[in-house]
Specification:
- The structure is a homodimer.
- Chain A is about 70% helix and about 5% strand.
- Chain A is mainly alpha-helical.
- The first copy, chain A, has one domain: Winged helix-like DNA-binding domain superfamily/Winged helix DNA-binding domain (Arc Repressor Mutant, subunit A, Orthogonal Bundle), CATH 1.10.10.
- Chain A has a two-stranded antiparallel sheet with strand order 1-2.
- The longest helix of chain A has about 35 residues.
- The radius of gyration of chain A is 20 Å and the shape is globular.
- The relative contact order of chain A is 0.10.
- The complex binds manganese (II) ion (4 copies).
- One manganese (II) ion binds next to helix 1 and helix 4 of chain B.
- Chain A binds a DNA duplex through helix 1 and helix 3.
Chain lengths: ~150, ~150
DNA sequence: CAATATTTTTAGCACATGCTAACTTGACAT
DNA sequence: ATGTCAAGTTAGCATGTGCTAAAAATATTG
């Protein structure tokens, strides 16, 4: 029945772009947990010298079994090293990723603060938003956060 | 070995908040695909009178089998109606959600544009960011986008 | 109408991410 | 040294989200 009638220029669904964007967002989600883990592990090591399964379980509000499972994947991905009953460490690759993620997290957080949002809200939304910012967007965020910071 | 030494006030891991934020982000991810689907279905119906499996598969860059699977879940969730070999429609609840999501999508997109980002980048990043904006953040985005819009 | 092409569905698979329950290991206090 | 408790592991399960390949239904076209 629908042949091509009603151009209906209201929404303009650019199908090519939508498909690209969806694919990109899926890719971001695939790396999201890994990013949060290496970031948390780096933070824990900074604060307590070591990152243990229990610490991560508390931080992420999941069970130790889930942490174990995830750590096994991260190890396979070459981001962490882990021996049984020992605490978890980052590989060089993991440390590098953690650094990038911490910087990115910081940028997004400061940007949201600069919009006048509360620490609580900014910190909450940062946790999700950080994984979906392209380098261009991140640059824009950083610029504005820096400008607002020099108040 | 680690007892409580080195306050190391560099990062300040507020464990309570981190756990809360992670839980929240997980919840957002659980509804993300549903939101994008109802939005896409609404757009397709606006443009073509109907939303078919193939259309959605093209839009999301997945296989028709995947769309079928997802539609079954959405139906169980009461967001769409679907009969075999027929096109897909929104329930009232689905239409309502689609409206909200479209408004939110629009707000985030206009906000990113107002930062000087290209349409391409803004549209890409919006697709992920939109699902992680609290009402407060959304209000801030809208305010700034509106201000910039009146140029 | 009949042949063909497209669309939709189904079955069966895989992997990520979560859980609980049971078991093992390690740490620590008496 | 031993007994207890916390921490870590494992097995087994569920759900979400993707895939391919094959079958069934529908649409198009000669
Ligand atoms: Mn995060
Ligand atoms: Mn996300
Ligand atoms: Mn959207
Ligand atoms: Mn989206």
């Amino acid at each position: 029945m629908p042949k091509n009638e009603s151009p209906s220029q209201a929404i303009r669904l650019n199908e090519e772009h939508v498909a690209e964007n969806m694919t990109r967002t899926r890719e971001e989600h695939a790396t999201e947990l890994a990013e949060d883990y290496v970031e948390a592990i780096a933070d824990l090591i900074d604060e307590h010298r070591e990152a243990r399964v229990t610490d991560l379980a508390r931080l992420f509000a999941v069970t130790p079994a889930t942490v174990n499972n995830t750590i096994a994947r991260l190890q396979k991905a070459g981001l962490v090293t882990s021996e049984k009953y020992r605490s978890i460490f980052l590989t060089n690759s993991g440390r590098e990723l953690a650094e990038q993620c911490k910087a990115r997290h910081e940028t997004v957080y400061r940007f949201l603060l600069s919009l006048g949002l509360s620490h609580k809200i900014a910190s909450r939304d940062t946790e999700g938003i950080e994984h979906h910012c392209s380098p261009e967007t991140l640059r824009a965020f950083k610029k504005l956060a820096d400008e607002a910071g020099s108040s």
